Amino acid sequence: MAPGSPPGPAIAAMKLNERSLAFYATCDAPVDNAGFLYKKGGRHAAYHRRWFVLRGNMLFYFEDAASREPVGVIILEGCTVELVEAAEEFAFAVRFAGTRARTYVLAAESQAAMEGWVKALSRASFDYLRLVVRELEQQLAAVRGGGGMALPQPQSLPLPPSLPSAPAPVPFLPSAPAPVPALPLPRRPSALPPKENGCAVWSTEATFRPGPEPPPPPPRRRASAPHGPLDVAPFARLHECYGQEIRALRGQWLSSRVQP
């Protein structure tokens, strides 16, 4: 803690570790309140703009919002917060009991900021928390003892008029399946055709009802004309022709086996 910024007289004998205070002032834990305030000097009447951070019952102030080390700290125990008339507008004071206790005069930048700081500083001390706990204990004891005090019941909030109500659910009725058209079955002949030698012989007369005539069959392809002597040669001649080539190949194979 910087010199010239002593804590309240109720904890004047408390020893504070500057390194621990600096770490607690700049840690990533959420703060109770933060913002710029004008702080009046102890010996001089000038106001200095400082960045204040409230954590629990400790009010730290820095040179600016980017500073990593606090200039001073105010321990908010045994103090009262009240509005004062000063040169600066929206001023309030943090007073401690005692003849030698120091009074901190601060000023906000707006009426809303001043009200927020006064409310936050008034609830920062453990004395205030102790009073709140005591009041809650008395209410709980009255409820348990049948004193006629009932706990507040949560009230249901009506929907805004701009939101339309949800439509009623429509019951699901399975629809009947669509009818499937029946496919026509092929007509069978009235009687089976006669058989000759185990094969059915179909008569030329139509046994079915007359219908569209089938397309005519494709024309038959004629055999290609012969292109050489082998195309018109009999089988014996073809056998003799190809047999000569086979015999020549077999003779070459036998001669190759005889030679060493």
Key terms:
PH-domain like; endosome; alpha+beta; Sesquipedalian; 5 helices; 17% strand; single chain; disordered N terminus; PH_domain; two-stranded antiparallel sheet; seven-stranded antiparallel sheet
Helix and strand arrangement:
Layout: H1 18-26, E1 33-40, E2 47-55, E3 58-62, E4 72-75, E5 79-83, E6 91-96, E7 104-107, H2 111-122, H3 126-144, E8 195-196, E9 199-200, H4 229-232, H5 235-258
Antiparallel strand pairs: 1-2, 1-7, 2-3, 3-4, 5-6, 6-7, 8-9
How far from one another are the termini?
117 Å
Shape: elongated
**Low-confidence runs of at least 5 consecutive residues:** 1-13, 156-166
CATH homologous superfamily heading of the domain at 18-127: Pleckstrin-homology domain (PH domain)/Phosphotyrosine-binding domain (PTB)
Summarize the helix and strand pattern as letters: HEEEEEEEHHEEHH
| Main sheet: strand order | 4-3-2-1-7-6-5
Helix/strand structural class: alpha+beta
Number of helical segments? Answer: 5
Q: Sketch the major β-sheet.
A: 7 strands, antiparallel
Overview of the structural elements:
It holds the Pfam family PH. InterPro entries: Boi1/Boi2-like, PH-like_dom_sf, PH_domain. Its main location: other. It is found in: Early endosome; Recycling endosome; Golgi apparatus, trans-Golgi network; Cytoplasmic vesicle, Clathrin-coated vesicle. The protein has 260 residues and is an alpha+beta fold. The model is unreliable at 1-13 and 156-166 (pLDDT under 50). It contains five helices and nine strands; from the N terminus they run H-E-E-E-E-E-E-E-H-H-E-E-H-H. The protein has a domain at 18-127: PH-domain like. 26% of the residues lie in helices and 17% in strands. The strands form two sheets. Strands 4-3-2-1-7-6-5 form a seven-stranded antiparallel sheet, with helices on one face. Strands 8-9 form a two-stranded antiparallel sheet.
